Fold this sequence. Notes:
It is a single chain. The protein has 493 residues and is of the alpha/beta class. It folds into 2 domains: 5-42 and 223-298 and 448-492, FAD/NAD(P)-binding domain (3-Layer(bba) Sandwich); 90-219 and 302-428, Polyamine Oxidase, Chain A, domain 2. Helices cover 34% and strands 18% of the residues. The chain has helices at residues 13-24, 62-70, 105-114, 119-141, 148-155, 169-176, 180-187, 207-214, 224-237, 279-286, 291-295, 331-339, 387-403, 421-428, 473-492; strands at residues 5-9, 28-32, 44-47, 50-53, 82-84, 90-92, 98-100, 217-219, 241-242, 247-253, 256-262, 267-269, 272-275, 305-306, 308-313, 323-326, 350-353, 369-376, 413-419, 460-462. The strands form 5 sheets. Strands 6, 7, 14, 15, 16, 17, 18 and 19 form an 8-stranded mixed beta sheet that branches. A 5-stranded parallel beta sheet has the order 9-2-1-13-20, covered by helices on one side. Strands 10-11-12 form a 3-stranded antiparallel beta sheet, with no helix packed on it. Helix 1 (13-24) packs parallel to helix 9 (224-237), helix 1 (13-24) packs parallel to helix 15 (473-492) and helix 4 (119-141) packs across helix 8. Bound molecules: flavin-adenine dinucleotide. Flavin-adenine dinucleotide binds next to helix 1 and helix 15.
Amino acid sequence: MSAKKVCIIGAGLGGLSAAISLRQSGYDVEVFEKNARIGGKLNVLKARGYTFDLGPSILTLPHLFERLFERSGRAMRDYIPIRPLRPHWRNFFENGQVVDLYPEPDRMAEEARKVGEDPASVQRFLRYSAGLYDLVNAGHFEQGIDTFRESTRFYGLWAFPKFDLFRTMHGGVKRFLRTRQMQDIFDYFVKYVGSSAYHSPAFMNCLPTIQFRHDLWYVDGGLYGIAAGLQRLMDEIGIPVRLESEVAEVRKQEGRVAGLVTKDGQYHPADIIVSNMEVIPAYERLLGEGKEFMRTLDRFEPACSGLVLELGLDCQYPQLAHHNFFYSERQREHFHTVFRRRELPPDPTIYLVAASRTDPTVAPPGCDGLKILPHIPYIDDAHPLSREDYLAFKERVVDKLERMGLRDLRKHVVFEHCWTPLDIREQYYSNRGSIYGVVTDRFRNLAFKAPKQSTRYPNLFFVGGSVNPGGGMPMVVLCGQNVAKKVVAWDRG
Ligand SMILES: Cc1cc2nc3c(=O)[nH]c(=O)nc-3n(C[C@H](O)[C@H](O)[C@H](O)COP(=O)(O)OP(=O)(O)OC[C@H]3O[C@@H](n4cnc5c(N)ncnc54)[C@H](O)[C@@H]3O)c2cc1C
């Protein structure tokens, strides 16, 4: 009997992970990608001797990527060269204080003392974080839990107090850490899911353990090396990818999906379809679902978007580490402005990557290439922002960086590239320009994203940041593996 045909819409990391996992389970897999290269938001820009990661720049939980190689009898190190970074993050505050994050307790203790935080409190917080990570990892991550009911079945009601459900993420941080600097830093781990520490549930404090226990990694030559490594693996195990092949429609027949139509009008029949296009745009644009059904998806509000600014400089700022954060004076206000009022923050917290600090291949000698990423609201049609609004905001970001130590930054720019949420939506068809899929919000969805199997068409599945467990590279890679298990269980069940 010939293998069943699975068509995958989108070659983001979730789509690639699902493709590899399904191929390894014996399916005939084909991937359709609208852009000219694979990787989705894992993207790269090379110009004038600089290499910039246009998307992710922090690799965590590499063991989840490793599984894709192991299942084909290969080792990831032969495909993707990675190494841990020190410090993990460098944190700059308006009062001039600078604090580094290290996973080693003795080095971390020194950093805590710099701002008057008791090192023992940091370790107590990290133990609390580790407990939450073990809890969330056992069910939500590894079992691929999709609904509250599945969660109750797996954990049992007795386990719920362990999730610290009555606190926000910030509330959990504040229980242990006294200084504003340490609170701001650990609140900002919510960056990994593009949400707000004041509106996410406390169990999101599992995030620091991802870094403190499993380390923070870099891919030599830039993070696009992950996509290149996966491409090689796919070539070896026989997964064709059609680039510049936008899917325009998913055809339905008798309550199932039957195949897809690409923009050039060609029909491709499929037994199973996996969409790496986000859930809301896929139902709306490819399946033409009506308003009533679309309203049931309202709780899957987008995570934040970002202003993605790349600057090639003719000098280096030696005070920068590889990963840097420049904090808002009032981070609570920053979160409220972005996530509740959905306005551009007057004083944002800014993430800045200077990969040239540890990798000399990504910038000309003696020069830094910077990627700058403040989180900003997703596109809200009720309060539209123009390109000019975003560009005015960009100037505020550069002003803040100049004020906080990158003196004369503007004068040293020899190359500039900037993407607004409008560009991000256009590039990846992400819902309203979101960069991490669905938001994590304790009242809107208690961190649940959409389920991996369609509630309408049993042979339609979803993968990526808009479904559980949500955004971030390792999570979508895990999602691809879990969606493959779901497909197999449904198909052979
Ligand atoms: C600026 C930025 C910084 C980030 N930083 C980090 C970080 O440091 N660490 C981290 O872990 N994560 C980070 N993330 C998040 C991470 O990149 C994403 O969560 C993850 O890569 C998303 O993968 P995905 O599978 O959901 O799909 P996506 O990457 O969104 O890919 C979806 C793919 O589907 C294609 N597609 C959509 N519609 C169609 C269609 N109709 N037909 C054909 N193809 C279609 C798109 O072109 C795209 O290639 C960052 C993201 C951004 C944008």
